[in-house]
């Protein structure tokens, strides 16, 4: 059975899209056919990590939502950007970065029900093993839909007070929607913080498993969204922790 994994954060800037890209890439390197869909239509950006240029986007998620194409027509095979000999595939459905397209979404909205149809069609038409949904931060109708249909929810947070309060909302939503598996990833933890304390405090606050803690990394800052971290640094501690998360998400 294909797995649907949503990656969410209550606010932007937590590293949600990077988390999605890194997990999806590791699955593809293991031989899975992975679809990644950018539903952060108001502020898309995951395509940058895969070096997919706007001019190369023949179709986007926006085109599907406006009835201009089938959703599978908006899928771009970006596997070669990672490894030309990759056993699996990475099929990315980006959202448009054109100003008029974003403005239209903000002005008119869209039929959220089409997303659910699109998710299922994407899995079927592209024969996906895993569909990863890069959600829009916060709480909206499209986010609730993505979480509701997911087999697993990864909540990305930073160890600060704003994220502590916002993450509690997301955890409660996940429980209310009966997501089968839910876990928290703590990102960009300063080196001066004790990881055991972070894990204990977060798990105590939300009664939700902390799958991994990712420390602040100069390598990530230097990469500056110019690629997918786990592909550039396969032996890094952060990559190893991402590998552990991939196993946890697919475990029975």
From TrEMBL:
GO terms for molecular function: ATP binding. The keyword ATP-binding applies. Keywords: ATP-binding, Nucleotide-binding. InterPro entries: DNA_Partitioning_ATPase (IPR050678), P-loop_NTPase (IPR027417), YlxH/NBP35 (IPR033756). It holds the Pfam family ParA. This is CDP-3, 6-dideoxy-D-glycero-L-glycero-4-hexulose-4-reductase.
